[in-house]
Amino acid sequence: MRDRFLLRLADHQMQRPPQSVVTAESPPRGETYCNGSAIRQTSKTPQVFTGVQAMRGIAALLVVCGHAVSARPDMVGYELAEGALTILASGVDVFFVISGFIIATTAAAQRNPWNFVFRRAVRIYPVYWLALLAAFASSYWIALAPGERPALDVGTIFAWTYPNWYIGPAWSLAFELHFYAAVAIILAIKPNRLFEILFAWLAMVIVALYFRIQLGICSHPLVLEFGAGVGIAYLLISRGLRFSLGVVACSAGLFFAGWYWIFVHGATDPQFARVPTYGLGAGLLIHAVVSAEIEGRSFSPVLQFLGKISYSLYMVHYPLVKWIANFDGPWLLSAGGTVIGLILFSIGLAAASYILIEAPILCWGRSLSLMRRSQLTSDAPQREGTMLPTSMK
């Protein structure tokens, strides 16, 4: 049982992608600077999908709980650790669906590839680099993953390749970044056909999977989970979303089916097995959440805040968990108490990271991109010898 668990744990940390790292907003019809001053307010301020934000918080918490429970399987039991990690890892699938949804909706309105790339980079790299620095320094004293410590290469520094030895959960960033790159290319070439080209790309992934064509990350089955989010975004724009309790029930059933297939039955290809189970279940869940919010339902402010800090939570918890796993004392005193303490400490550390680092940097990046957009918008008509309306200056 111990060897079986270690093999699955290594597979989870080193081969499987997590999280959506984007703000849960609808297409920006008008935006404001962080200090509240307006820029080109042609309509209402962008709606924030609080339900999607809450789901991000829950998804991040699931991943943290999975790593906390499985940090010392010798203390909590190998079967319990493996079973918990198997189902709690589904938080990654929820992240991918959310990412597909948010990126598709925001990119459909943004249309500027450079601004899109800049805001994604500001969103991802500062917190990631901070966590990577902490993990790199820690690697001199503790083992962060199986095997010898590899060199810190460019692929790891920019989270473009996987697996990620230093921050196990960051392997998913490689999937996120490849998706962002595809969207940026579409925005640069044919922004008016964003959805059509994305759907064609996803069809290509299905063909590559069927014929076993190796295209790296682009032919990985988990890429299809972004497609579920893109589909929900398309339904949102075309006003085709309707809330149904049956969808929620189907989602719960699929998550259970995924856990049973992968953990109990023992799927020969867990990466593929999670797509029609966890992936489809996550798609139905986000479909239900977005449609419920459109119909006026609200979501807990606590979960919304957890969603705000979800990216910091996803990044910073892993080095912390690895540190505590190297000390026997807390686990011998109370394994359950140590797991709970790890989860609470991770949330506190993530909140500090968000307030002190992530939020100010995001605010700066958003203001900078909006100023640049404002300059481009105001300068272009003037060069043509026209005057802007007073309300647009």
Give a description of the structure.
- With 393 residues, the chain is mainly α.
- It is built from 17 helices and 2 strands.
- The chain has helices at 2-15, 50-70, 73-76, 78-88, 90-110, 113-138, 154-157, 171-189, 194-210, 223-237, 245-265, 270-273, 275-294, 301-308, 310-325, 328-333, 335-383; strands at residues 31-32, 38-39.
- Strand 1 (31-32) and strand 2 form a beta hairpin.
- Helix 2 (50-70) runs antiparallel to helix 4, helix 2 (50-70) packs antiparallel against helix 17 and helix 11 packs antiparallel against helix 13 (275-294).
- The longest helix has 49 residues, at 335-383.
Number of E-state strands = 2
Kindly report the average pLDDT value: 85
Q: Can you write the helix and strand succession as a string?
A: HEEHHHHHHHHHHHHHHHH
Low-confidence stretches: 13-33, 36-46, 380-393
Helix content range: over 70%
Instruction: List the strand order in the largest sheet.
Output: 1-2
The main sheet comes to: 2 strands, antiparallel
Number of helical regions: 17
What structural class results from the helix and strand content?
Answer: mainly alpha
Distance between the termini: 68 Å
Shape, please?
A: globular
> Hey, roughly how much beta strand do the residues contain?
under 5%
Q: What is the CA-based Rg, rounded?
A: 21 Å
Can you give keywords for this protein?
disordered C terminus, 393 residues, mainly alpha, 2 strands
